[in-house]
Specification:
disordered N terminus, 3-OHacyl-CoA_DH_NAD-bd, 8-stranded mixed beta sheet, alpha/beta, oxidoreductase, 44% helix, 19 strands
Length: 604
């Protein structure tokens, strides 16, 4: 189980003063920089003289940039560089208190390094592997001193990333873990203790998600650009999954996933065939100049257009004219959507099951606009004008002349079908009918009408005024001009539209909720704590919130409902909701809204 780590009592400085780094690729060079800047003597070792020279040049350039940015003085830079020496002779590790190997992800290579080190280093020297995919236990078992072997998993780029996973096998001595933990803290890192299984915490959760995104793209469900934009804008991630795979290296991702699948036999970890195809073709991502995207040159991060790049004009054809919009519902989502349309200049009819509910929803919009005025984002006159464009109504009959009707009622298929049957009777011919469902089949709503060609999904994200993403969901029956209409409307309301087909979860939820479910399984299996998993994903994956923070915000009941829909549609055992999540929901622990979910919250 992962546990928070802190320096050992009475220990002021780690005894690990001289450290050898074996393997001077990008990660090894980054670790060398971190160690040297923290005052350690570093012996950089690589079998290639060209690589050792490249590593030194990279270290000189990185520390020069640090001086330019005021993060190092010239004197500190000179000291750091003086503490690094490089060699191609592994015997130089004889002086080291700690050896960190960062060689290619191969048991054969790593075990050979450890066997050679056994004959070179002192008995008390700690041997650490930087693997993120292979079994630390298996590597330790092949060593003459397995109790001194552990995992020390830095994240790329090592100088910038705070997370370090300290990985123990059943053979690892506690004293070795304590010494390495103290070192990590002195380096300014945040160490997390984890057990030995492929992927550990951060990569264990991250690579399953990346694999599903690759499979989604391979199935031609959505374009690479739309998958990446959806996860950036819908989840606040710094990079989309396919761009991240290109950055990590598609061959590296495939290796990690193969190791995870060998251990878990979970089909979600079975590498998507496209990862093998790209790897074997040498299209490994940024480092080769081409992967899911095409880059300016090998090693460049600049994407250049290729045959798969969408046309700039969109080429969707003409849509239908939309001047007025009807929003059905009285909850937070309905109010937010009505506010978005009114801000964009549309006349909005906000209809609910009663006049009172519609007026309450409009009043909620008024409060939202007032907050924007208080924060200086709107003038009082502009806010008043927006509110005037919203007309509340206690009946859907008020939608008779709208050009676009958007429903945002309860996430219940029968409720939505009844509403679409009512809209079919009320709305004029040619009106576009849209559902904001996040998980239900759009086509089922369409079939409740006599005009399924006019029905489409417009999945807004909460809060609608702030979130930029809209998933545009076409069914097999949706007309081309209806699709074009909704894309045009999204542009006018300043939302980023992504296209996807009509299947459970669309893009964002189909990728997000299996990741959240896997995090729950980690806790359920006592592999890691809530706090460590949240910290690992924020520090190691760049997520704005950890999975358990997010689950408590979304609501455990909402999360469970979406996971059940995904499991029912895809029939994959790996998508079955974690029993711990089901138990918490059954106990009424639904997250922040009830004051208790995975964590407890102060009652307001």
């Amino acid at each position: 189980m992962a546990t928070p780590l802190s320096p050992q009592s009475g220990t002021s400085l780690s005894p690990l003063r001289t450290i050898a780094v074996v393997g001077l690729g990008t990660m090894g060079t980054g670790i060398t920089e971190v160690l040297a800047r923290a005052g350690r003597e570093v012996i950089g070792i690589d079998i290639s003289e060209a690589q050792t020279a490249k590593a030194l040049a990279a270290l000189e350039a990185a520390t020069a940039r640090a001086v330019e940015r005021g993060r190092l003085t010239g004197e500190e830079r000179a000291g750091a560089l003086a503490r690094v020496r490089t060699t191609t002779d592994l015997a130089a590790a004889a002086d080291a208190d700690l050896v960190i190997e960062v060689t290619p992800e191969s048991y054969e290579i790593k075990q050979q390094v450890f066997r050679e080190l056994d004959a070179i280093v002192r008995p008390e020297t700690i041997l650490a592997t930087g693997t993120n995919a292979l079994s630390v236990t298996r590597l330790a078992a092949g060593s003459a001193r397995p109790e001194r072997v552990l995992g020390l998993h830095f994240f790329n780029p090592a100088p910038a990333m705070k997370l370090v996973e300290v990985v123990s096998s059943v053979l690892t001595a506690p004293q070795a873990v304590a010494a390495v933990t103290d070192l990590a803290l002195e380096l300014g890192k945040e160490p997390v203790a984890v057990g030995d299984r492929p992927g550990f915490v951060a990569d264990g959760l991250l690579f399953g998600y990346l694999n599903q995104a690759a499979a989604m793209y391979e199935a031609r469900y959505a374009s690479r650009e739309d998958i990446d934009a959806a996860m950036r804008l819908g989840c606040g991630l710094p990079m989309g999954p396919l761009a991240l795979l290109d950055l990590i290296g598609i061959d590296t991702a495939r290796t990690v996933l193969e190791a995870m699948y060998a251990e878990s036999h979970d089909r979600l970890h079975a590498p998507a065939p496209i990862l093998r195809q790209l790897s074997e073709a040498g299209l490994t991502g940024r480092k080769s100049g081409r992967g899911f995207y095409t880059y300016e040159a090998p090693g460049s991060g600049t994407v250049v257009p290729d045959a798969l790049t969408p046309a700039a004009d969109g080429s969707l054809g003409a849509g239908r004219e939309v001047r007025s919009v009807g929003v059905a519902g009285s909850g937070t989502m309905a109010s937010g959507i009505a506010e978005v349309f009114a801000k964009a200049g549309y006349q909005v009819v906000l209809a609910a099951r009663s006049e009172e509910k519609a007026q309450a929803a409009r009043a909620r919009i008024g409060k939202s606009l007032a907050r924007s005025v208080d924060r200086g984002r709107l003038t009082a006159e502009a806010a008043a004008g927006i509110l005037e464009r919203i007309v509340p109504a206690g009946s859907y009959e008020a939608f008779a002349e709208v050009d676009l009707a958007v429903e945002a009622v309860a996430e219940d298929l029968e409720v939505k079908r009844q509403l679409f049957a009512a809209l079919d009777k009320v709305c004029k011919p040619g009106a576009v009918l849209a559902t904001t469902t996040s998980s239900l089949p759009v086509v089922a709503c369409a079939r409740a009408t006599s005009r399924p060609q006019d029905v489409i999904g417009m999945h807004f994200f909460n809060p609608a005024p702030a979130m930029k993403l809209v998933e545009v969901v076409r069914t097999v029956l949706t007309a081309d001009d209806v699709h074009a209409t909704v894309r045009e409307v999204c542009a006018k309301i300043k939302k980023h539209a992504v296209d996807c087909g009509d299947r459970a979860g669309f893009i964002v939820n189909a990728l997000l909720f299996p990741y959240l479910n896997n995090a729950v399984k980690m806790v359920q299996e006592h592999y890691a704590s809530l706090d460590d998993i949240d910290a690992a994903m924020k520090l190691g994956g760049g997520y704005p919130m950890g999975p358990f923070e997010l689950l408590d915000v979304v609501g455990l009941d909402v999360s469970l409902a979406i996971e059940k829909v995904l499991h029912r549609e895809f029939r994959d055992p790996g998508l079955a909701p974690a029993p711990l999540l089901e138990h918490l929901v059954a106990a009424g622990c639904l997250g922040r809204k009830t004051g208790r979910g995975f964590r407890e919250y102060a009652r307001r």
